[in-house]
Design brief:
6-stranded mixed sheet
């Protein structure tokens, strides 16, 4: 199922090596739907590095996740939390052990003592006078601390007087009293976390507690808080540079955090089930919960606001405004160009369109449009592709070149590929010439209709690409909005605005409430009514205009950063930036007031041109305020009343103060400015109001000045005076200095100036004493930030569970900062503080001047050179590179070693060692470090050519500054994964118990995905954060669900899922997965679903929505490289289904869905084949069934390649389940159907077009034979029928087109070879024609020579003498032989009639079926002389064409004439189309009146069946012959039918070729094929058994099987001879049998070497009796080449004038 079990419990994987395990039920409550919910603590388990065994499991109880779960979720995931009755066991109410150990009377006496001691301590504390506390008070407090450590007395210390006592003690000036208060608090807090939190909360909520607490008291409370929260939210921020937060601000954050956690606990407690003591009504409970929710939201907003200020995020945001994230699906992987999913929000790009040519949408059909394009298109016109076709994509443009009658017919030069490619007419859109094209903006034709408010009617598209339709992103469809609600603020927006209203004090608050009442008909507004107000947008805009003038600077920054202001603020509505404008507007009243004051009392002040004035002149009115403050401080005896207003103004606008302090980091040349600044700061420290300024935010500048080696001694001394004074006044800043490393900096300054710096040692000691406080502050900052992140994650979880909006102010702001760095990497050009070198330090700057021509050169002994980098805090090096130059020769480094350490004295860790090649210029030393190293040292151990000194041209360090995004992403993904995996397990349980609930899964998933999509659009700032959330949600929810619904229930699944084990319903006996059952039901009710009002239509709609939702997130597909795509010899590459699956690697979801769909298709096909395989119309019905499955696949999953391949594999699997004879029958039926449709297409007209359509549909179905064992059988039958078709009616273009489409179905490629042999025969025929003309010219030349000799013979004298007798005799013999050959060859040379045209087809027995060429023809006895001469000449021509140099052992091909072929005879006005046998028979009747069948058999040597097959058409009604039965003549007598006997066609073409004879797979030939397969299976198994587990390579196995088949000793000779024509065997047959045995599991592949095969399990094989296979011949017979005749005539002789008609050859 979704996870795995641990001790019979469910365990959820959270990441690599991480699992979550349900540990404890914490509390319970009533959910928003009225059902109980339970909070479960899930422990995080880490898997050790040793392995995956049980010993390596480590339970980290510090790491846990608190998750609220429903009853169903606990039932499915937390089995141990269920009782025997199956109900959830509630949280245990444990009774403390010590309470039972104490007697009630003793406990009562102790409680009385505690109360009296509290009263006494309060009285003694009030009577305490002086700084030294009296001893009785200390003793009383000590006794109270002892009582506080007793747990049963905890309830007594909850008395409010105890809090008063602790407050007085903590605010006491005496250290011992404060220390005693801390001891008492620690004693009370030692019992449990609840008591500790209650004490902290009670103390922190006291009014003005900061005024009464000194540094030590505050640290005591902070340490207690750190101890309380140490194990609650264990979160590490290692490597992230957290800001230095002073104790005062840290204590405020602690107060806010405690308040928020207490309100959250009250919310959870208010939702608990009402018990006996709670008698409140539902309305009162609802009102109380609403009040708590509002108070919690306001408190959480305050905490986030202060935390953002403490982390200094608000200043970073003021410099860079947030950008809105593009609205797109967070679950679909985004491409680099554009993101699919939602409707585009920007203007659509312009596209090119023709002005004068019609688009395809204006035509009713594709054929009409194709005719229009063909008639209109001219060479040179621009065209655009409308559909994806092989290598050309939709939208590609190109130039039309030419067209012809081929397929495809159109050649276009495409710009996308840079070459020509052939496409079809209907795929093109005519753009025309350049003057006909215009740029327009219109909806994209290839993406369907765009969703705009409501779905419109989309024009029909030629290729379905649902980018914005229901099936693309169903969870982001626009929801119907209430018109009234759209005119008002949402509750979240109103509460965010209410947050700022509650920030106002006194008159400002009343004025804003007055604005609300005036717009709401004067209604009295209290807190309850304010929370539920429906605020119109106009009123919100008025409030946003009034608020900025009444808020201080920090609240104003919050207002500018919030979402409600960005959406409804005046600057946002006007389209202008808001931040600078409002700050200026805020400064205007103050400037006006100052101007009025100046106008009434004195003339405008003139500021002297000083460095301070030049520094602050650009700050505007706040800068002038600070200059006035400086003037007041410079006056003699400045009064506090004069200084205080300026300080209050600086608190509101501290920018000039921060600029002043940051000026200390400027170069040392600004000594006057530095002294002036330090003088002002020294004076400010003496004022209490100045301590509230943000000193900590500019302490980095002070440290930079302190560390700088160029700082003047006078400036350094003044700086130390200032820092000492500041740390003495507020020890918080001593802690900040400790965090910044001031101790080491002061020590180095003392060393440099020989200890002559006053108060430097005292300052160093003061900083050193704050070491533990600095550690406490860092831990508290981490805990508060971690706690806030956990609360944010908890709110996200509640939002997922309750589907209620998140109404917390600044929630999106906090998430924006946590996700900062997710979309961009913050880099630093300079990642180090300083660079030190081993020698020549004055040239060290050359390492970082970015000039490759300069260099640092060392000076010293070999191997002693180094470069030391002091890194900035928290910088993780991404890449450290050394720049060298080969021209430096022996100065160039040869070996470099890099070390890391925490200081220069601890450089012991070797990080890397690199050997530098002489040709190198950039040497990468370090990459992607995972740990921060403060010190990095580069040591040059050796130089090239044994050099001593070295030269380094440069040093580059690149390192990303760590952000919070990795930490937050990990936590967000963990919580999201756990939540949705638990939910997926619960939903899977519902489906397992009742698979009909699968129909509701679509709506469930849509709700969850829509919620995550809306959350990402509302709160997440960038695409990377949104994609991380979407990917986690999809993997945690959809992937497990798909895995469960596509897998049948099994015992393993029952063990994995405890809910299934407890279920009373057993799993399905048929083993069908729930989704498989659903798809089966869909296919069964598909016909009934055509009625939209039927239940079947509603059912089908739910199934389609579910399947499209599951598959709409497709993985990114990488394009195939050009070399990987095979090229065919055709015009374009052929269609191959197997290539569809190689374009991208499907995800696990798609893989599981395709397997399920394949199983469903396989079952459907198998049932159909089992029921209908004997039907006469089996193939058409099967094609229709396959077409329906194709349509269903497109309806359910769209045109996705993976599901088309699954459909093909499912059909193949159904075929493989058939027995051999049934499968052979099916293959024969397909071959027969194709043969009938090819022959039927020759008819032409509408009937011929219908036959072509049926053929095309059948060919699509036949493609499933590719790669199957049945393909060999199919090829066998197709070869037979194709041979008869080619020899009977001739070849056509359709034969090649069919083979091009279903070529992969022929493993031996015999049909392709047959067509190739026909092509070769045509070429031989052309050569033979030239050969005949040559012979004719030779004969004519001989005649001319003879005539010349005759003419010259009369003039010569008879003076020649005769030779010897022997010579004459010998010459006569030779002459006779030559004359006989020439006579045979020239038999028809002097034929007086019209010479027939004879075409010879040379057929090879290697590819043509032997059964078709078993009958031979003797031309001497069966053909007339005018035909024999042509055959003889062809034989001589063929022999000469074979006279090539060959091996001595080689055998030449010889010709054997057969009866196969066809002819055209002229019979009166009729043209008879007959076979060669029929031609011979009819020509034979030219010389005879009648002939008996018996004489024809004797003369031809044909079999009776073959002769009767030829006679039957000739004696039919359309034939010219008549067969008469006679008693004394067996078989009857044939004679020419008289014209007066029966009416028949008198003219035209008459087809008398014998009809096709189809085979039967159940006959002897089919059984022979089965017997051959069994014999081959026996051989394969025997050979693999002999080689054991080692196995054989598949090539070696094929060779051994073929060798054993030919030589023996098995199978027996008798059995092979009984196979008849099935005894032939080749490598394809062996591979087919191997494929069969692999499918059966008898043979297995090796995992590491798939090409190695070995025997797996025994298999029952009908093995024949063994005997030698060799028939006894000494060697193989010589190859034979058979020939058929195709006879044609040059003229058409007419019949004689006699009454008897004769036949003459036409073709």
């Amino acid at each position: 199922m979704v996870g795995e079990l641990r001790y019979r419990e469910f365990r959820v994987p959270l990441g690599p090596g991480l699992h979550a395990y349900p540990d404890e039920l914490i509390r319970q409550r009533v959910g928003h739907d009225g059902h109980p919910e339970y909070q479960i603590r899930w422990l995080i388990l880490r898997r050790g590095d040793e392995g995956e065994g049980g010993s390596s499991q480590v339970d980290c109880k510090a790491e846990h996740i608190l998750l609220w779960m429903s009853n169903d979720e606990i039932y499915a995931n937390c089995h141990k939390m269920l009782g025997e009755d199956g109900q959830v066991i509630g949280p245990s109410q444990e009774i403390t052990g010590e309470a039972g150990a104490l007697d009630k009377s003793v406990l009562g006496e102790m409680e009385t003592d505690v109360k009296s001691l509290i009263q006494r301590a309060l009285r003694q504390l009030e009577e305490c006078v002086g700084t030294i506390p009296p001893a009785p008070l200390l003793h009383t407090v000590h006794v109270l601390s002892a009582y506080a450590s007793i747990e049963p007395l905890t309830g007594v210390f909850k008395d409010p007087r105890v809090l008063d006592l602790l407050m007085h003690m903590l605010s006491s000036p005496d250290y011992q009293i404060r220390w005693s208060a801390g001891r008492m608090i620690q004693a009370l807090a030692s019992h449990d976390a609840g008591t500790r939190t209650q004490i902290l909360l009670s103390l922190s909520q006291q009014e003005a507690i900061e005024k009464h607490l000194d540094f030590d008291s505050r640290c005591a409370l902070l340490a207690l808080f750190a101890q309380a929260t140490l194990s609650e939210h264990p979160m590490s921020f290692e490597g992230i540079q957290l800001p230095q937060v002073p104790g005062r601000l840290l204590f405020s954050l602690v107060k806010r955090y405690l308040h928020v956690t207490s309100l959250l606990d009250q919310l959870n407690d208010s939702a608990a089930e009402p018990g006996a003591q709670n008698n409140s009504g539902p309305e009162e409970l609802s009102g109380e919960r609403d009040r708590l929710e509002l108070e919690f939201s306001m408190a959480m907003g305050t905490l986030i606001s202060e935390l953002v200020q403490a982390m200094r995020w608000d200043w970073a945001l003021s410099r860079q405004r947030p950008l809105a994230r593009s609205s797109c699906s967070i679950f679909q992987p985004q491409l680099a160009e554009a993101g699919p999913g939602l409707p585009p929000t920007r203007a659509q790009p312009s596209i090119r369109r023709s002005r004068r040519f019609r688009p395809r949408s204006e035509f009713a059909s594709g054929n009409t449009y194709a005719l229009y394009v063909r008639e209109t298109l001219q060479a040179g016109m621009r065209v655009r592709m409308l559909d994806d076709y092989e290598e050309v994509s939709a939208g590609d443009e190109g130039e039309f070149r030419q067209s012809n009658n081929g397929m495809p017919p159109v050649q276009v030069l495409w710009e996308s590929t840079g070459r020509t490619y052939w496409v079809h007419w209907h795929m093109l859109e005519i753009l025309g010439f350049e003057e006909d094209i215009e740029d327009v903006v219109e909806a994209n034709e290839y993406q369907g209709a765009v969703v705009s408010g409501a779905l419109g009617v989309a024009l029909p598209s030629w290729r379905w690409k649902p980018m914005t339709e229901l099936y693309a992103v169903p969870y982001v469809l626009p929801e119907d909005e209430d018109a009234e609600e759209s005119e008002h603020l949402t509750q979240a927006e109103w509460w965010e605005l209410l947050f700022f209203i509650k920030k106002l004090d006194g008159p400002d608050h009343q004025e804003v409430l007055q604005i609300l009442q005036e717009n709401l008909d004067g209604e009295i507004l209290d807190d309850e009514i304010l929370a539920e107000l429906a605020v119109p947008m106009e009123l919100a805009q008025d409030l946003l205009l009034a608020l900025p003038q009444r808020l201080d600077d920090s609240a104003l920054r919050d207002l500018l950063n919030c979402r409600v202001y960005r959406k409804y603020g005046p600057e946002a509505l006007a389209g202008h930036p808001a931040y600078p404008t409002l700050l200026e507007a805020q400064a205007q009243p103050q400037e006006s007031a100052g101007a009025a004051r100046v106008e009434g009392k004195e003339p405008p002040a003139q500021y002297p041109d000083t460095p301070l004035w030049r520094l602050l002149v650009d700050c505007g009115p706040p800068g002038r305020t600070f200059l006035d403050l400086e003037r007041a401080l410079s006056s003699e005896g400045p009064q506090e009343t004069e200084i205080k207003p300026f300080l209050l103004q600086l608190q509101r606008q501290p920018q000039p103060f921060l600029i002043l302090m940051q000026s200390l980091a400027t170069p040392a040349a600004n000594k006057p400015l530095h002294l002036t600044v330090l003088r002002i700061l020294m004076q400010l420290v003496d004022f209490p109001e100045a301590l509230l300024l943000p000193w900590h935010e500019a302490m980095d500048a002070c440290m930079a000045c302190l560390r700088s080696p160029d700082t003047d001694r006078e400036v350094l001394q003044e700086l130390i005076f200032f820092l000492h004074r500041l740390a003495s006044v507020s020890r918080d800043y001593a802690v900040v200095l400790n965090q910044l490393g001031a101790r080491d900096a002061i020590s180095k300054a003392l060393e440099k100036h020989l200890g002559k710096l006053e108060l430097a040692q005292e300052l160093r000691d003061m900083v050193f004493k704050c070491e533990k406080h600095a550690h406490l502050y860092r831990k508290l900052t981490t805990n508060i930030l971690g706690g806030c992140i956990q609360m944010v994650l908890g709110q996200i979880e509640d939002h997922r569970r309750t589907h209620r909006p998140i109404n917390i102010p600044f929630f999106d702001v906090f998430l924006r900062y946590l996700c900062q760095g997710s979309s961009m990497e913050v880099k630093e050009d300079k990642c180090w503080e300083k660079v030190e070198v081993s020698s020549n330090p004055h040239r060290a700057s050359k390492l970082t001047d970015r000039n490759p021509k300069t260099y640092w050169e060392s000076s010293g002994s070999a191997g002693s050179h180094y470069i030391t980098l002091h890194m900035h805090q928290g910088i993780l090096i991404r890449q450290l590179t050394l720049l060298v130059a080969g021209e430096d020769s022996s100065y160039m480094p040869a070996r470099v070693v890099v070390f890391g350490g925490d200081s220069t004295n601890s450089l012991n860790t070797e990080l890397n060692s690199v050997n530098v090649m002489p040709s190198a210029s950039r040497v990468i030393l370090l990459e992607n470090l995972t740990r921060f190293w403060p010190i990095i040292q580069i040591r040059i151990k050796r130089c090239q050519q044994g050099g001593i000194d070295t030269r380094i041209r440069g040093l580059e360090v690149l390192g990303p500054k760590p952000t919070f995004w990795p930490v937050f992403r990990e936590q967000l993904c963990r919580h999201t994964r756990l939540f949705y995996m638990v939910r997926a397990q619960a939903w899977s349980q519902d489906i397992a118990e009742d698979r009909r609930s699968l129909l509701h899964l679509s709506s469930r998933l849509n709700g969850a995905l829509r919620q995550e999509q809306n959350f990402a659009d509302r709160f997440l700032p960038d695409d990377e954060a949104a994609q991380a959330l979407g990917k986690t949600c999809w993997e945690a929810l959809v992937s497990p669900l798909v895995q469960n619904i596509t897998s049948p229930a099994s015992p393993t699944a029952l063990e994995t899922c405890p809910a299934l084990a407890c279920s009373s319903q057993p799993p399905d006996e048929d083993g069908i997965s729930p989704l498989g059952w659903l798809l089966d039901q869909y296919l069964e009710c598909r016909e009934a679903a055509h009625n939209p009002q039927s239940r079947a239509a509603a059912f089908s709609s739910r199934v389609r929505r579910l399947t499209h939702l599951l598959v709409h997130v497709e993985p990114c597909e990488a394009p195939l490289p050009a070399a990987a795509a095979p090229r065919t010899k055709s015009r374009n590459r052929s269609h191959d289904w197997s290539s569809l699956a190689t374009r991208g690697l499907p995800s696990s979801i798609v893989r599981n869905l395709t397997r399920c769909w394949q199983a469903v298709v396989e079952e459907q096909v198998n049932n159909f084949l089992t029921s209908h395989w004997r039907d006469d119309d089996f193939v058409p019905r099967y094609c229709e069934h396959f077409h329906n499955l194709q349509k269903s696949s497109s309806e359910l999953f769209g045109p996705r390649a993976a599901f088309l391949l699954a459909l093909q594999n499912g059909c193949a699997g159904g075929l493989l389940k058939l027995p051999f004879l049934k499968a052979a029958h099916v293959s024969e039926q397909f071959a027969r159907h194709i043969d009938q449709r090819i022959q039927g297409s020759r008819i032409g007209g509408a009937r011929g077009m219908e036959m072509l359509a049926q053929l095309q549909r059948c060919l699509e179905t036949v493609l499933i034979f590719s790669g199957l064992e049945i393909a060999t059988t199919f090829e066998h039958y197709y070869q037979h029928y194709m041979a008869d078709r080619l020899l009977g009616v001739g070849s056509s273009w359709l034969e090649g087109a069919v083979l091009e489409q279903i070529g992969p179905c022929f493993p031996n490629r015999l049909p392709q070879q047959m067509l190739q042999s026909l092509s070769t025969s045509e070429e031989l025929q052309r050569q033979f024609h030239v050969y005949q003309l040559q012979r004719l010219d030779q004969e004519l030349l001989k005649l001319e020579d003879t005539e010349k000799k005759i003419q010259g013979g009369h003039e010569t004298s008879d003076k020649e003498h005769k030779g010897e007798k022997a010579e004459e005799a010998e010459g006569a013999v030779v002459t006779n032989v030559v004359e006989e050959e020439e006579e045979e060859e020239n038999e028809d040379l002097y034929y007086e009639g019209a010479m027939p045209e004879v075409s010879v087809l040379v057929l090879s027995p290697r590819c043509w079926p032997i059964a078709s060429i078993c009958h031979t023809l003797n031309p001497r006895t069966c053909l007339p002389s005018y035909l024999r001469g042509t055959l003889n000449r062809y034989s001589n021509f063929y022999s000469k064409s074979q006279s090539y140099p060959a091996l001595e052992q080689g055998l030449k091909r010889r010709l054997q004439w057969t009866w196969l072929g066809r002819a055209e005879l002229q019979f009166g006005d009729q043209t008879l189309h007959v076979s060669t046998v029929q031609m011979w028979l009819l020509l034979y009747l030219n010389d005879l009146q009648a002939v008996s069948v018996e004489s024809l058999l004797a003369l031809s040597g044909l079999s009776p069946d073959m002769l009767n097959q030829a006679i039957t058409p000739l004696t039919s009604l359309r034939g010219p012959l008549d067969l008469r039965e006679e008693n004394d003549v067996p078989g009857g007598v044939l004679k020419i039918r008289d014209a007066s006997e029966e009416p028949r066609p008198r003219r035209g073409n008459v087809w008398l070729i014998p009809p096709q004879v189809y085979l039967k797979a159940e006959d002897e030939e089919g059984r022979n094929l089965e017997k051959r397969r069994n014999l081959l299976n026996c051989l394969i198994v025997r050979i693999l058994k002999a080689h054991g587990d080692k196995g054989l390579h598949i090539d070696q196995l094929v060779c051994r099987v073929l060798d054993a088949w030919q030589k023996g000793p098995c199978p027996p000779r008798g059995l092979v001879s009984s196979l008849g024509r099935g005894s032939a065997c080749n490598s394809t047959d062996v591979l087919s049998c191997i494929l069969h045995l692999l499918g059966k599991g008898t043979v297995r592949r090796h995992d590491d070497q798939p090409q190695m095969l070995s025997y797996a399990v025994p298999m029952t094989v009908m093995e024949p009796h063994t005997e030698s296979l060799n028939p006894g011949s000494s060697g193989p017979n010589p190859p034979l080449t058979f020939h058929t005749l195709q006879i044609r005539s040059r003229g058409v002789p007419y019949a004689s004038c006699t009454g008897t008609q004769s036949f003459s050859t036409f073709r």
